[in-house]
Amino acid sequence: MPLGRTCHLTDSHKPDSFQTVTTTLRSGCPIAASLDLLGDRWTLVVLRDVLFAGHKRFSEFATEERIATNVLAERLERLECAGLLLRRPDPADGRRWLYLPTKKSYALIPMLVDLAVWGVANTDATGGRELASAARKDRDGVVAQLTARAKAAAKER
Question: I need a surface site. Which of 87, 125, 148, 156 has the fewest CB within 10 A?
Fold first, then answer.
C-alpha cells in the first residue's frame, strides 16, 4: 500500500516546466490519510469556496479569512494533485487560471454539510446557521441541492 504520492504539475503556458508536489501519509488509516490531505487550516475553506460559493479564480478564495497568497497557491496545487480540483486557463483572460471541482470534490459535500452543522451546534460561529438548520431537517435534500449548484457553477466559465 503506497503511503505517499508524488504529482508533477505542468504549466500549460510553459510545457517543459513542472512542479513536484508530494503528499506523505502518516499511516494506512483512512481517517489519518484524509487528514493528511484535508486537515490543515485552509484546505476545507478553499473547498467550501469552490463547492458552496462557486468561486473559481485565485482572487476569490478565502477572502473573508484572508489567506496568504503563498499558502493559497500551495493548497490549490495540492488539491489539483489530489484530483480534487482541475486547473484550466481562464477563457476570459489566458494569463489567469480557473479552479474547478471534480467528482472527488463533490463527494466531500456531505462531509462539509455535516461539519457546518457540527460547527453551528458546537462553536461560536455566526455564519452557516441557515445551512445547518436546513440540513438538520433534510440533509440529503441540502446535499443534493449543493451538489447540483456546484456542478452548475463549474460549467459556467
Answer: 156
Residue pair 55/65 in contact by the 8 Å Cβ criterion:
no
Return the CA Rg of the chain: 16
Q: Rounded to two decimals, what is the model's pTM?
A: 0.84
Closest C-alpha to 60, from 51, 49, 48, 71: 49
CA atoms within 13 Å, Cβ hemisphere of 151: 11
Picking from 115, 95, 102, 117, the residue whose alpha carbon sits closest to that of residue 147 is 102
Contact between 43 and 37 (Cβ < 8 Å): yes
Torsion sign over Cα 67, 62, 154, 96: negative
Instruction: List pLDDT tens digits, range 21-72.
Output: 556 778 889 999 899 889 999 999 999 999 999 999 999 997 888 899 999 9
Among 142, 86, 82, CA closest to 111 = 142
The residue whose grid cell reads 506523505 is: 24
pLDDT, tens digit (0-9, with 9 covering 90-100), for 58-110: 999 978 888 999 999 999 999 999 999 999 999 999 889 999 999 999 999 99
